[in-house]
Write a structure and sequence with these properties.
Elements lengths: L4 H4 L1 H5 L1 H7 L40 E2 L12 E8 L11 E3 L2 E6 L3 E6 L5 E5 L3 H5 L13 E3 L2 E5 L4 E6 L5 E6 L14 E3 L2 E4 L12 E6 L5 E6 L12 H7 L11 E2 L6 E4 L4 E5 L3 E2 L3 H4 L11 E6 L5 E6 L15 E7 L2 E8 L5 E6 L5 E6 L7 E4 L6 E3 L11 E3 L13 E3 L4 E8 L2 E3 L34 E8 L4 E8 L7 E4 L3 E6 L3 E6 L5 E6 L9 E5 L2 E7 L22 E7 L25 H14 L1 H4 L21 H8 L17 H19 L2
Parallel strand pairs: 1-33
Antiparallel strand pairs: 2-39, 3-4, 4-5, 5-6, 7-8, 8-9, 9-10, 11-12, 12-13, 13-14, 15-18, 16-17, 17-19, 19-20, 21-22, 22-23, 23-24, 25-26, 27-30, 28-29, 29-31, 31-32, 33-34, 34-35, 35-36, 37-38, 38-39
Helix pairs in contact: 7-10, 9-10
Amino acid sequence: MRKPAAATRIAGMMMVASLALAGCGREKSAVDAGPDAYAGQAAVSHGGRDWPGYGGDWTDTHYSPLAELNADTIGRLNLAWSYDIDTLPNAFSAPLAVDGVLYFGVGYSVVHAMDAATGTLLWKYDPQAPEIAGQKMRSAWGIRGIAYWEGKIFTGTVDGRLLALDAKTGKLLWSAQTLDKDDGRYISGPPWVFKGKVMIGHGGADFAPVRGYVTAYDANTGKQAWRFYTVPGNPADGFENKAMEMAAKTWTGDWWKFGGGGTAWHAMAYDPKYNRVYIGTGNGAPWNQKIRSPGGGDNLFLCSIIALDADTGEYVWHYQVNPGETWDYNAAMDIELAELTIDGQKRDVILHAPKNGFFYVIDRKTGKLVSAEKFVPTVTWADRIDTQTGRPVENPEARFPDGQAAILFPSPVGAHSVEAMSYSPKTGLVYIPAIEQGRIYTDPPDLAGWQFQKGQFINNGIGKPPADLKVPGTPSNVLLAWDPVAQKARWSVPLTGMKNGGTLATGGNLVFQGNVEGELAAYAADSGKKLWSFDAQVGVMAQPITYQVKGRQYVTVLTGWRSSGPSGAAHDWDYHNQKRRVLTFALDGKASLPPFDRTPLPFVDDAAFVIDPAKAAAGAELYAQRCIICHGPAVKSGGAAPDLRKSPMPLDIDSLTAVLHDGALVPNGMPQFPEFTPAQIGTLQHYIRQQARAALKP
């Protein structure tokens, strides 16, 4: 059992005096200068000294102008310090650095503060979200980022709280419940802060009949300032605003009974020039438009970037990347703000590479499309984006008409997923963790009678693919340098596996990226030449950041691999023996990691256990409904959860029952399934034993 939250904060209370002394005599920063110095997301980056927001400064480009690290010095970059993270289940999170303090949230929003130069833990705050979350635990793997504003750290929790912590002590300042207890929504993304407000969205449209929204709160008090719904509700209840009335005209049938979706679960941005916030919205609930909106329509504002007035939350404009979306091609990926010279004129633009495989340049002032081109080789759902209308020219087969099955690229993983891309104003290039992967889409057998199934993981309205139809090729990925003005690739680096980590671009002409092979690497930003690498001893999915402390440049990244299934690499990172760490680097760093045994954990079995094929078949069906998203297909875990073929726990039916039915491992992030009967738990045991025994065969 974990220690109570109060106990985890003792270290912070004892370190207040030393932290205050550490700030004495330092250079006055934008953080000290008051609200007028704030450009947006937390503070200006003070020439790169701080990394105060998820994407760096207010542009959210994951870029730093710092140049102490460059081609001439990168050979001297080495580990300065490391910290072993004892929080489960993942460390797929972006840290912040402000005034020499490193902040990060891991697992279910367990927030840490550390001395950025030494790695000394200053405080730790545990909101004990798993104990509160209930069924929401079944849908989310933990937090991806936090936010900073005027001496406060903000984080969302899986159970729906938005928390404000004192940045010096870790003390809880206020808590706002932004979701209902049993509404199917949850929080996994970072908050965004601007002009004294903090904004948070949510996820959940894959799992429940959810209607998306974002909410802004007063950053000092937690009082709600405004809320904007991303899709319309039941017309009989009236509309919250003119935008929802307009959007409702693009839906058909009784869409509100399915929630609609459009959740803003990740990317946002604040634009101080136009006093707007931009939010990226997700897929429909369910994905399949034939179910939620059977008469078609654009289904606003699914898979869109929406511009809202930062003060009032009122609609300004939108751009929809996928009208009438039906493939999970959501627009929740990075929204990055830049100034580009296009046709001899400077343009304020949004740079956006969503799942659908097209790279978009969008005018920030008007929301009109500037240009869009395919950034991965295989995009089959649409031929092109019409620059006059801004709409895709779709492949007719993409909507799998008349119950036919269609092989489409990209897959729901996306040509670019949640791993951060970065933009360097120095090179003019965008650095994208790009993915090549397809999927088979078809309707479920009972299209007209389809309903959300409570407790089932993925309620997408997509049917099981025909057994004789296979997706061609092998999933792959590259680090791609994309020219957003010319709309073409400048260079790419092929990488191992299906996907890799987020990117960081710097003024030293460098791009940093972690990968599935357990490496953090640095490339020349203008050419893609690999200049440096470090053996992190585990896959790296999180984005690196860089900052200065007393004039010295540091790079920090959180390590750990989180995947539902096999990664496509030579080996996968086991949930139990992988090392989740904070790694911080500087020139002439003197630290090193202890030796790490890469020998995989063995498969376990009980030879006396007699497998009942009928029970195993029933267990396979239940597993596919409730377990596969974390524990992997055919019980082949990719690091998001334990590989049950290697765990002794399923060998004992009483232990398996204690975990599944009674919730014995809820504090560790394992959801509880009290609705499971003894017979159902038995079928799961037989299926796990069947798969473990198959793995043991030579």
